[in-house]
Amino acid sequence: MWATDLTRGRGRFHHVLSAIAPIVVLLGLVSCQSNPKTEPPLQLNLHQKWQLQPGDQVAGYPVLGGLGDISISLNRQAVYAPFTGRTQLDNRNCVIFSSPDVPAYLFRLCGLENPRLGSVSPGDRIGRADTLQFAALRKQPNGTWAIVEPSRQILERTLKQP
Amino acid sequence: MKTSLFTHSVPKFLVAGGSVALAVGLMTDLYGLPSFRFRKNVGEACQQVVRAEAKLSRDQLAKLLVIPEGQNQKAVRQVVQDPYCKLSSLQVRVGATAQREAYPLDFDANTWLVVLYEGEQYVGYRFNTR
Fold it and tell me: Could you name the domain of life of the organism this protein comes from (chain A) (predicted)?
């Protein structure tokens, strides 16, 4: 009697184990990937040394955009990755988008809620915003990033899904 | 005696249901897995092949990396020669059209170098792992 119960119990146990094993393996895989949210924030050295920038405070109020940011009223609509690339946070909690297909440029998106960080494909949602502050940054020979005027083409690629 | 742990205390449907719920929960995260990412993460396609046999050697790459941004395109071309292909031209900032040229690396077939010019000016490079 003991022996049969034990074998039956073991059989069930193996059954449950075989059902749980793939899940445990999956969990392991998920936990192995590097979490982009724990990456240290980027510290971009800007070419223009303007006094007030997004994330600063003036008279106790938060600054949402600085000189060189294009402000777009998005009314909680989504923004999309304009190219294959990567999203990271900077030290002002803005999203920095970089693409291997667009050398020498970065795009800075401030005002996104719950942004998606990490690898992105063209057209992937990278977040929503009430008001998006968009800046295009161009690499300078001395390694700093200059805020330049983004083209309509780039803005349209970011605001519309292809 | 007959009550063993797995016959009565954990009903089958609970185990099955729980597994399915867990699996569904995990699936939502699966797209973050490297394999899914890798499949999706393909660079932009060539618009026009210029020199099909073009490949950058270590020596050429080392010479390119010391050319400062802002130099004339000729200085870069002298080192890297004609590209494998051109990507579509693009306007990133107002008043300048960007031309992008791609070179596979001789010593790493999955990595490409993309060089960006605006007019005659070399603006920068980035590596693309395909």
Answer: Bacteria
Chain A residues touching residue B69 (CB < 8 angstroms): 104, 139-141
pLDDT digit string, tens, across residues A76-132: 999 999 999 999 999 999 999 999 999 999 999 999 999 999 999 999 999 999 999
Are residues A85 and A29 part of one domain? no
Of B46, B90, B10, B48, the closest CA to residue A9 belongs to B10
When divided into structural domains, chain B yields a total of 2
For residue A102, give its domain range. Answer: 39-159
Q: How high is the pLDDT of residue A39? A: 82
What ipTM, to 2 d.p.? 0.75
* Cβ-based contacts of B33 with chain A (< 8 Å): 29-30, 33
**CB-side neighbour CA atoms (13 Å) of B76:** 26
**Chain A residues with CB inside 8 Å of B23's CB?**
23, 26
Three-state SS at A152: helix
Inter-chain contact B92–A102, Cβ cutoff 8 Å?
A: yes
